[in-house]
Write a structure and sequence with these properties.
The chain has 181 residues and is of the alpha/beta class. It folds into two domains: 89 residues; 74 residues, no CATH class. 28% of the residues lie in helices and 19% in strands. It contains six helices and eight strands. The radius of gyration is 19 Å and the shape is globular.
Length: 181
């Protein structure tokens, strides 16, 4: 329905080695058929013992698999706000690869995230964010003060996810389900 309504449609696929990586080519064919963009996202095994380290397939392997199945795979320039590395397949089908775990795009990331619990995170690898929910619920601050808190948080954002991760005191990360991603 979104496609028929003329809505720019993207489909995200978290690629998991041995689970769905064999479907990557099918997703590209579907993207071609329906004129949508498919973005392949690296699985993010945050914690050493969370059971999904074996599912991680790096962006480089995802790209190699695609290049082995299509003769014309060319990188295209994505806009500055893109979270993916963009490619054109056979000159017509646009795909993206999001190096979420290998974090090769961290240096240009302009994302912030508000968790379902009202915590503002400037990085998925941050140990702690800013608890906005109590401030907003209790009318403890004005809209202008809230805006200033968010701006200051963005200005303090670390260079990349590796720096953020190195500054952690705990080795256990929040699940993507609690972060909202």
């Amino acid at each position: 329905m979104a496609i028929n309504a003329g809505i720019n449609t993207k489909i995200n696929m978290v690629v998991m080695k041995g689970i769905n990586d064999h479907e990557i080519i099918d997703f590209i064919h579907m993207a071609d058929k329906y004129g949508v963009e498919v973005r392949f996202i690296e699985a993010m095994p945050f914690n050493q013992f969370d059971g999904n380290k074996s599912l991680f397939l790096p962006a480089s392997d995802i790209l190699a698999l695609i290049q082995n199945n299509f003769s014309d795979v060319s990188r295209i320039i994505a806009d500055d706000n893109s979270s993916s590395i963009k490619y054109l397949i056979e000159g017509k089908t646009k795909i993206g690869i999001i190096p979420a775990y290998s974090r090769s795009l961290c240096g240009s990331c302009n994302r912030i995230r508000l968790t379902p619990k009202g915590e503002l995170l400037t990085c998925l690898y941050a140990e702690k964010g800013i608890e906005l929910l109590p401030l907003v619920r209790n009318n403890a601050i004005t809209d202008e003060q809230l805006q200033e808190i968010i701006i200051k948080a963005v200005w303090k954002k670390k260079e990349n996810g590796f720096v953020e991760e190195n500054d952690r005191t705990e080795s256990v990360f929040q699940s993507m389900t609690t972060i909202g991603g």
